[in-house]
Design a protein that fits this description.
globular; 42% helix; single chain; Rossmann fold; four-stranded parallel β-sheet; alpha/beta; 166 residues
Length: 166
C-alpha cells in the first residue's frame, strides 16, 4: 500500500479520432482530472501492439490505459475490435504474471466524451495510487529508466503506430 506520497505514472495509448479528442475536450473544457497520465496519440487503438503496454510497464509505468472509439464506430472499420481482442489476451497474460487488473485498463470514449475520459483517468489514478508503485524496472533491470528511454522507444516504433491499412 502507498504511504500517501506516491503519485502513479500512467501511460495512455489514445486513438487520434475519438479518445485523444475526448482528452482534448476535457482540457479545453477545463474539466479537472489528475495529471498522472502521459498520453501517446496513435492513429487507432487497433495499432497498439501488446508489447507496447509491456514495454511501458518495463520502463516504469504503474498503469497503462488503452482508449479508442466505441465498438462499431471505428474510423478504420473494425480495428477497435482488434484492440479489444488484444486487450483481453494481454489482460489474461498479466493476470498470470500476478499483475493487479487495475493497472491495465480499456476505455471507449468518443470525441464528445471529455467528462467520461476525465472521470476514468481520475478513477484509474485513485485505484493505482491505492496499489502503490509497480517497480518493475527495479525487478528487471539494474538501473531505473526515465522519460528519455520511453521517448527513444516510441521513436524506434513510430512506424508501427502509423495509419492501419483498410
Amino acid at each position: 500500500m502507498s504511504d500517501g506520497t506516491f503519485e502513479p505514472k500512467i501511460v495512455g495509448f489514445l486513438c487520434n479520432w475519438c479518445s485523444y479528442r475526448a482528452a482534448d475536450l476535457a482540457g479545453s473544457s477545463r474539466v479537472k482530472y489528475p495529471p498522472n497520465v502521459r498520453i501517446i496519440r496513435v492513429m487507432c487503438s487497433g495499432r497498439v501492439d501488446p508489447t507496447f503496454a509491456l514495454k511501458a510497464f518495463e520502463l516504469g509505468a504503474d498503469g497503462v490505459l488503452l482508449a479508442g472509439c466505441h465498438p462499431g464506430e471505428c474510423h478504420y472499420l473494425e480495428q477497435n475490435y482488434k484492440a479489444m481482442r488484444r486487450f483481453s489476451m494481454l489482460k489474461h497474460t498479466l493476470r498470470a504474471m500476478k499483475l493487479e487488473e487495475e493497472r491495465f485498463q480499456l476505455l471507449w470514449a468518443s470525441a464528445a466524451e471529455g467528462n467520461r475520459f476525465a472521470e476514468h483517468v481520475a478513477k484509474m489514478t485513485d485505484e493505482i495510487r491505492k496499489l502503490g508503485p509497480l517497480n518493475w524496472p527495479r525487478n528487471w533491470i539494474e538501473k531505473g529508466v526515465g522519460d528519455k528511454e520511453i521517448e527513444k522507444f516510441l521513436k524506434e516504433h513510430e512506424e508501427a503506430m502509423e495509419v492501419p491499412a483498410r
